């Protein structure tokens, strides 16, 4: 089952000619999940030829303009196709007010159900087949949430030679064992899944953190992520400015990634003061702490693979 992250916009504060505002889309097989929707989101959707009508849920970090101004366009875009399933929009307080006001003022034609859920406490905010999305609080100038997308664990690797030794013939019984059922061997004895499977294997984990001070608890929330997309808005020499604005530096993001033992860190939400050339300074400061760091660019694609 494929899992991919598409960066639709990597910029913060204001859009630049080659840098839309922050937005990330996660695709799991045919289902899509949008994290924030800054200005320019639907432009990148179009350029990547992503099927926006497959967006099941939108997760809003907070209601600052550079994270939500692209959402009205997404809502209207979705009315251009037949849609039977509701669209969930999940975010902190003020999310419902923003969506409802936008619909009213713009007199939107919406031909599908929109369900807005405001987060009142940390924890699981959305669940699907084999996965869940968990929200946790960040520290910004207004209520802001980080998100973790986690898949369920998988059974251990199936060992056909063990099944054959225990008298389970090739066929449907093998599938039952792999799905966790106990079966009867050809001799009538019970064979349990653990008799033929290796150690349980983990699912995949994606985390999204932006617009926050750096603080220790973030590492625990995103621990073990296969991909952490995290703001790296400023370089180290502007750490005091970052603190005043309740943002973090690229180096601080890297320290979180290191402490959380993530597999890859992708920086996002850059200050517009940084040109494409001097973004390299952010990257170097982060890689000095956590070598598996990359810069996101608009329309970057990150496949998220199983470890095993």
TrEMBL record:
It catalyses: Endonucleolytic cleavage of RNA, removing extra 3' nucleotides from tRNA precursor, generating 3' termini of tRNAs. A 3'-hydroxy group is left at the tRNA terminus and a 5'-phosphoryl group is left at the trailer molecule. The active site is at 66 (proton acceptor). Its cofactor is Zn(2+). InterPro entries: Metallo-B-lactamas, RibonucZ/Hydroxyglut_hydro, RNase_Z/BN. Residues 20-195 form the Metallo-beta-lactamase domain. Zn(2+) 1 binds at residues 62, 64, 140, 211. The keyword ATP-binding does not apply. GO terms for molecular function: 3'-tRNA processing endoribonuclease activity; zinc ion binding. Binds 2 Zn(2+) ions. Keywords: Endonuclease, Hydrolase, Metal-binding, Nuclease, tRNA processing, Zinc. Its EC number is 3.1.26.11. Zn(2+) 2 binds at residues 66-67, 211, 269. Zinc phosphodiesterase, which displays some tRNA 3'-processing endonuclease activity. Probably involved in tRNA maturation, by removing a 3'-trailer from precursor tRNA. Homodimer. Belongs to the RNase Z family. This is Ribonuclease Z. It comes from Breznakiella homolactica.
């Amino acid at each position: 089952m494929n899992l991919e992250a598409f960066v639709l916009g990597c910029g913060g504060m204001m859009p630049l000619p080659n840098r839309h505002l922050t937005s990330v889309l996660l695709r799991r097989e045919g289902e899509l999940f949008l994290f924030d929707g800054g200005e320019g989101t639907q432009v990148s959707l179009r350029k990547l030829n992503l099927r926006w009508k497959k967006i099941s849920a939108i997760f809003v970090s907070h209601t600052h303009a550079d994270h939500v101004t692209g959402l009205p366009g997404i809502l209207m875009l979705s009315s251009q196709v037949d849609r039977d399933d509701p669209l969930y929009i999940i975010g902190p307080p003020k999310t419902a007010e923003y969506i409802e006001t936008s619909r009213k003022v713009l007199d939107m034609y919406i031909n599908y159900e929109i369900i807005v859920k405001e987060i009142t406490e940390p924890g699981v905010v959305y669940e699907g087949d084999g996965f869940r999305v968990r929200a946790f609080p960040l520290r910004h100038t207004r209520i802001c949430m980080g998100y973790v997308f986690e898949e369920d664990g998988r059974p251990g690797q199936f060992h056909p030679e063990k099944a054959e030794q225990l008298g389970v013939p090739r066929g449907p019984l093998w599938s039952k064992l792999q799905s966790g059922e106990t079966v009867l061997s050809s001799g009538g004895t019970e064979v349990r899944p653990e008799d033929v499977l290796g150690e349980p294997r983990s699912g995949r984990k994606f985390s999204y953190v932006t617009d926050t001070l750096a603080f220790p608890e973030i590492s625990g929330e995103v621990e073990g992520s296969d991909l952490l997309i995290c703001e790296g808005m400023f370089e180290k020499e502007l750490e005091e400015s970052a603190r005043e604005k309740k943002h973090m530096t690229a180096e601080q993001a890297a320290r979180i990634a290191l402490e959380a033992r993530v597999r890859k860190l992708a920086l996002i939400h850059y200050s517009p003061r940084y040109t494409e050339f001097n973004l390299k300074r952010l990257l170097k400061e982060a890689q000095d702490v956590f070598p598996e760091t990359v810069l996101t660019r608009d329309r970057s694609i990150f496949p998220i693979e199983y470890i095993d």
